[in-house]
Structure formats: structure tokens, C-alpha cells
Design a protein that fits this description.
4-stranded mixed sheet; 371 residues; abc type-2 transporter like fold
Length: 371
């Protein structure tokens, strides 16, 4: 006869057993935490590589107007890093691949500009990479336009009047590392949730579940609760690095905490479904690591996905990471990166969790019933 309290007791016992198993796998737990931090470094590299390209600055004029132009070249956002040097050094380093480009301010530049004469500004580019080439081609004209506008040159006929939709600017790296927390939750919680279930099949323990006085759902819930607790610690460490190390201050602290816990819980459930379907530890780990980057990139993690075209944006809706990024960016930065409101993102994530739990429970129940 099953008593009312048997379910919660079985859940607690299952959770304790899973925690003991994890405590005996300390290397796995440590690597789980390190994996969360590794993804932060990975996505940070997305923002750092390809920006601040080394560019030679050859100033043969040394006039006040030349100095003004240099100022606006330096302000070109994340485009290049100016390195003053001689023309000979610039040619040598450009030829040897140490520079992306070389900008030369010719002698007489200041006098010619002041007199209203057109000046040719030589820009030599190592066009081995079209992306870096495009950055230089966009940044130099932008800097020249800002230089002309600031100095009141009459040749500049059109001036942009910018009106920002959002009251504050968000740097690319802070945006990336917050979205990386969704990737952390996917991989860490997904893998641990999957392993918690897959190990039961590999060890043949799932066949003993029919001896329990309660349904398989209680035992599954206990294992997933333990996995989610460990995953929360790992993701919490990563979140601490984001907030303390990267200087990111959440706009909504409670919503941030709730979103992180929600993501961990949901991806733990998704992992359980994968573990129940595959029944092996190695395939589920490979599955989550293999899907991590494609799902991350096609989720609005690098920029709002709706800006990448309707087809890609439609595909993104098939991934829970899309909704996780939307919830986290709103909670931390106050940014609306999905057309769906944050509450809708959270509701869809909960739906993902419910479907995953149903799948995992159905597979386990069927397996137990067969035995």
C-alpha cells in the first residue's frame, strides 16, 4: 500500500543518492564548473577577435588638423588600433602580415584641408580577410565624416541626428557574456541531467525502479533536483564572474536570479529526456557539446536574431536557447532582444520543460513496466 508521504520521501532519497554519486565524481563536478567558465572565455573571444585590428599610422604632416583626424580615427569603434610609425616600418610590417592596414596622412594635409582643397588619404590594406577589409573600409570614411563635421567644413552637407531607442548603451562583450549564461545552462545542466538518467540504464538500475513503492516520476524528480542543484552552483560561479569580473550590473536582480534558475531547471529536464532516449552517457555528452554552438549562434546570442533575416529567425524559435537569451538579456541589461515579451519567453521555456519531463517519464515508466 502506498502512503501519501512515500512520494516525497522517495524523491528525497533519490536526490541524496544522486548527490552522493556526484560527490564520488568530483572530477566531473570540477570540470562542470570549469566548462561554464570556458564558455565565457569562448564567447568573449567572439567579441575580441576581428576588432581593434592593428593599423599603422604614418603622420607626415603633424599639423593640428592632422592631430584632429587622428583623434577621430582612434574613436572608430572597435575597428582598428592605431600604431604610429614611419612609412618604411609600415610597409615592412604590412608585407610581413603584422598589420591589417596603414593610414598615411600626407605632408601638407592641414594646409590643403584648411584651403578647401581635396586631399587623398592613402590607406593600404592587407585584404587577406574580407571581414577585416570591410571593417577598415567602413571605419575610415566614418572617421573622416566625423572629422569634417567637428571642424565645420562646408563640404559636409548631411549630418545624422541620432535618436536612441534605449536610454543606455550596452557593450558587445557584456551582451555576449550574459547570453553565454544561457549556453552554460544548456551544456552544464543538460549534460548532468542526461547523465543522471543515462547512468541508470548503463548500470541496469532502472530495472529495479519497479520495486519502489512509488511511481518512476518521483525517483526521476529526485535525480533531476540533485543535478539541477549542482548545475546551479556551476552556472552561479559563471554568473559571479560575469557580474564581478566583467563589471556587469543586473538591471533587475531578482529577475536575473529567477531567469538563471529557470534556465537550469529547464535544461536539466531537456537533458533527462535526451538521457532517457539515448540511454548512454557518451552519446548524450557528445550531443549537447555538438549542439551547443549552433544553437547558441542561432539564438540571438550575438545580436537580436530578428536582424538576421526571417528564415534564420524562424528557425531560432525551434531552440529553447533563443527564449533563454531573451529572458536573460531583459533581466540583466533591460534589453528586448525578442519580439516576444519576457513573460512569453519564460512561458515557452516552461513548456519545453514540461514536454521534456513527459518524454523522460514516459520512457522510464515504459522501461520499468516491461521489467
Amino acid at each position: 500500500m502506498v502512503h501519501v508521504g512515500d512520494g516525497p520521501r522517495a524523491l528525497r532519497a533519490s536526490a541524496i543518492l544522486e548527490l552522493r554519486q556526484l560527490s564520488r565524481s568530483r572530477v566531473l563536478v570540477v570540470f562542470t564548473v570549469l566548462e561554464a567558465l570556458t564558455f565565457l572565455v569562448l564567447v568573449s573571444l567572439f567579441g575580441l577577435t576581428g576588432s581593434r585590428a592593428p593599423t599603422a599610422l604614418v603622420d607626415d604632416d603633424h599639423s593640428p588638423l592632422a592631430a584632429s583626424l587622428v583623434t577621430y580615427l582612434e574613436r572608430a569603434h572597435h575597428s582598428f588600433q592605431l600604431r604610429p610609425m614611419t612609412a618604411a616600418t609600415a610597409r615592412r610590417q604590412l608585407a610581413s602580415g603584422q598589420l591589417v592596414a596603414a593610414v598615411t596622412i600626407p605632408a601638407g594635409f592641414g594646409n590643403d584641408v584648411a584651403a578647401g582643397r581635396t586631399v587623398v588619404l592613402p590607406v593600404d590594406v592587407d585584404n587577406v580577410d574580407v571581414d577585416l577589409t570591410d571593417d577598415i573600409q567602413r571605419a575610415v570614411p566614418s572617421a573622416l565624416a566625423a572629422f569634417g563635421r567637428a571642424n565645420g567644413f562646408p563640404g559636409v552637407r548631411v549630418v545624422a541626428a541620432e535618436r536612441d531607442l534605449i536610454a543606455h548603451d550596452t557593450g558587445f562583450i557584456p551582451y555576449l557574456v550574459v547570453s553565454a549564461l544561457a549556453l552554460d545552462a544548456l551544456v552544464v545542466a543538460g549534460v548532468l541531467g542526461a547523465l543522471a538518467v543515462a547512468r541508470e540504464f548503463e548500470a541496469g538500475m532502472v530495472t529495479q525502479w519497479h520495486l519502489a513503492p512509488v511511481g518512476a516520476g518521483w525517483l526521476l524528480a529526485g535525480k533531476l533536483l540533485a543535478s539541477a542543484l549542482v548545475s546551479t552552483v556551476a552556472v552561479g560561479v559563471a554568473a559571479g564572474v560575469v557580474f564581478a569580473g566583467y563589471g556587469v550590473t543586473p538591471v533587475h536582480a531578482f529577475s536575473t536570479l529567477a531567469s538563471l534558475v529557470l534556465c537550469v531547471g529547464i535544461f536539466t529536464c531537456v537533458g533527462a529526456a535526451a538521457g532517457a532516449l539515448l540511454r548512454r552517457s557518451l552519446p548524450v555528452a557528445a550531443l549537447f557539446f555538438g549542439l551547443a554552438l549552433p544553437l547558441y549562434i542561432d539564438s540571438g546570442a550575438l545580436e537580436p536574431e530578428r536582424f538576421d533575416g526571417n528564415a534564420i529567425w524562424a528557425v531560432a524559435h525551434a531552440s529553447p536557447v533563443y527564449f533563454a537569451v531573451g529572458a536573460l538579456e531583459d533581466a540583466v541589461h533591460g534589453l528586448r532582444v525578442t519580439p516576444e515579451p519576457p513573460l512569453a519567453d519564460a512561458a515557452i521555456l516552461l513548456l519545453w520543460a514540461a514536454v521534456a519531463v513527459v518524454i523522460a517519464s514516459a520512457v522510464l515508466s515504459r522501461r520499468v513496466a516491461v521489467r
